[in-house]
Amino acid sequence: MSTSATLRRLVSKVPEEPDRALVVRGVGKRYGDRWALRDCTFALSAGSVAALVGSNGAGKTTLLSIMAGLLGPNEGELSWSRPGRVAFLAHDRPLYRGFSVADMLCLGRRTNRVWDEQRASRWLRRFEIPRDRRCGTLSGGQRTQVALAVALGSCPSVLLLDEPLSNLDPWARREVLRQLLVEVADHGVSVVMSTHVVTELDGVADHLLLLRAGRLLMAGETDDLLANHVLRTGPRAHRPPGPGEVLWARHFEQQSRFLMRSSPMVRQVVNDPRWTSQPVTLQDLVLAYLSRQEVGACSG
Amino acid sequence: MLWLTWRQHRWQLVVTAVWVALLSVMVSGDFVDRMIRLPNSICFLPTPSLFPVTAPCSRVSTALLAVLPVVVAVFWAAPLVSREYEQRTYIVAWGQDVSPQRWLAAKAGLLVAFAVGLALVAGVLASPMRARLSLQHRNVYSRFETPNFDVAPLVLVVHVLAMFTFGLAASVILRKTVLAMVATLALCVVVSVIAIQLRHHYFSPVRSLEPVGDNRANYGFDALVSRQGYADEAGREFSFSDDVCLGSPDFWGCVREHGAVYIFTDYQPGNRLGRVRLIETGIFLAITAVALWIVRWRMRRLPDSP
Amino acid sequence: MIEFRIERGSGLPAYLQLVEQVRQALRLGWVKPGDRLPTVREVVSSCGVNPNTVLKAYRELELAGLVEARQGAGTFVSAGLGSADPAVMARLRAQLAKWVQGAREAGLDDEDIRALLSTALAEVRVEGIA
């Protein structure tokens, strides 16, 4: 390796401070005596795509609503580091039923300080949404596209999406994800999207927020989270060699498989040839944490 | 916001404007008077009264005009915010760069300005006709009486202002359209009834005594009659049911025989009309301010549930 | 030009897949030193992958000395893969040949050997993430 490359490698080991767009500290929300969210703490980086994953009723919509400013938290605080617009796509994509699609864009144009008509129109054209149809006659997927067009046209710096891919056909799902990422690349928008389907987020989401029963089980960069977990397979045993916390275990006749959380540095010490290690997919990780009996918090 | 208000409310605004325009024409036009002279006029509506009623068309259209504030409150103001909550479109409306407070101020401001404009135009158009009626038919037409009192321009305008804010308050607090409309209607009716009653009590009434059978009403222009009854020769009122005299050939003689010498009338004379209008205006402006304060207070808090 | 393809759910992080595909392109001669790699936006648009992922991949390649980012112009290939020390390559090849012979003698066929090799590669990758 050349000297300059070595130097560059050494220099880049200094961790870069991510540009934080939002810091959420200890946020909690209560309905009556039921806590829908409790003690949620995480930070959102600028220009990142965060996946908010959790089962139904875990509190995803509540968290997004609080971040969008539509709900007030009972505890905790949110601090936005830079001024900018927050656009929210609600679960049911509310639109004015009597308005046409063009009227909705007009609404966006006239009530926002900054408005990019081209950006919104391009989105509508790409998904073939007719401009003169009444919003009340649109299908669920079309309403999603209109709501997204209005959200993007307002030039947001943060985009909060509540299950944006539901009621979209497979082509539209991929295309919406792709186009959202292009928006991130072009304009540096930070995206938080809640979803049920984790597999299609591989390579898309660089941050993961895992909610269960109102608490954040995981919050951090997906690459780091995945790096700290490993799948070990070997002869049937109570637990695999080496340090680390076992998240789940599957035992077969002569084989055992464990999903473990351990730092990669520590893992290098163990070298039992009977045991193999495999990287963990996002899907495996999410399922493992969501199905654990004890709920414990963990971050990146 | 101007475009948004127009786009969301254009039918309401147009229909109400047309309706008010028609009524104003009917109230202010000469043909009303001419029409009642025709036999079997469509405008003839029998109304119970001690004296024969003239200009019935004018009376009906005046009543309809006096109802404008309630209509505006129930159909424009009450659904304003509650509809957004019910259809969850508040997420769109307040998800742009306009804060909920500014959104409401702009929208409500535009709507109430339009309503006030309508009220002013209608009131001003109706004024000459009402003045003439008061002059020509002074024993029958009084501008102090309901609903004539309520269509004076100043009074109509403050009624619109106050009731619109009632509707806004109901809309913001109740967040359900039908409920807000019903509550607004109830509140408007209650306040109107109270206001009508209070007009008799701001000043102590003047009493006039007329000999029974005289049939000459003596209270002058634009009086507001509070009570009427029978009095004895000393001028003290006593209760006497004149049913017993209905059968006799000389009704008034029979009444006199029973000791009723005078008919007394407690009334507010017409020269107090201006002062009472101002008092009522002041009261309605005060309750408008209270209602507005409630609206502002409620709008400042974030909703507690999605 | 490189045509990237991300396999979702494969267990391999997307940025490493991109790194690997660039290395393969270099190996196979699809790109040569001096060629410009696709811009972040182009990769995002064609693959549907996160821009930070692309940046991370290009940074890895830069650290490995294979590419170089020029301000405002893009990312360019700076070195070929074959620039590893030929002596090292020869030694590794000899070691590998000996190992393959030992495996054949132990009774493994080609498929078994390939399976062992894949497992070893995956292990090293997982534990190499620091």
Notes on the structure:
- The complex is a heterotrimer of chains A (300), B (306) and C (130).
- Chain A has 300 residues and is an alpha/beta fold.
- In chain A, 30% of the residues lie in helices and 30% in strands.
- In chain A, helix 3 runs parallel beside helix 5 and helix 4 runs antiparallel to helix 5.
- The longest helix of chain A is centred in the middle third of the chain and has 18 residues.
- Chain A starts with a helix and ends with a strand.
- Chain B has 2 domains: 228 residues, no CATH class; 65 residues, no CATH class.
- In chain B, strands 1-3-2 form a 3-stranded antiparallel sheet, with no helix packed on it.
- In chain C, helix 1 crosses helix 3.
- Chains A and C meet through helix 1, helix 6, helix 7, helix 8 and strand 13 of A and helix 1, helix 2, helix 3 and helix 5 of C.
In short:
By secondary structure, chain A is an alpha/beta fold. Chain A has helices at 3-12, 60-68, 101-111, 117-126, 140-153, 170-187, 222-227, 264-267, 282-290; strands at residues 20-31, 34-45, 49-54, 75-80, 86-89, 158-162, 190-195, 207-212, 215-221, 229-235, 245-251, 255-261, 276-279, 298-299. Chain C has 5 helices and 2 strands, in the order H-H-H-E-E-H-H.
Write the SSE topology.
The complex is a heterotrimer of chains A (300), B (306) and C (130).
Chain A: H1 3-12, E1 20-31, E2 34-45, E3 49-54, H2 60-68, E4 75-80, E5 86-89, H3 101-111, H4 117-126, H5 140-153, E6 158-162, H6 170-187, E7 190-195, E8 207-212, E9 215-221, H7 222-227, E10 229-235, E11 245-251, E12 255-261, H8 264-267, E13 276-279, H9 282-290, E14 298-299
Parallel strand pairs in A: 3-7, 3-8, 5-6, 6-7, 9-14
Antiparallel strand pairs in A: 1-2, 1-4, 8-9, 10-12, 10-13, 11-12
Chain B: H1 2-28, H2 31-36, H3 56-66, H4 68-86, H5 90-93, H6 100-136, H7 153-174, H8 177-198, E1 206-211, E2 224-231, H9 251-257, E3 262-268, H10 273-300
Chain C: H1 14-28, H2 40-47, H3 51-63, E1 67-70, E2 74-77, H4 86-105, H5 110-128
Antiparallel strand pairs in C: 1-2
Helix pairs in contact in C: 1-3
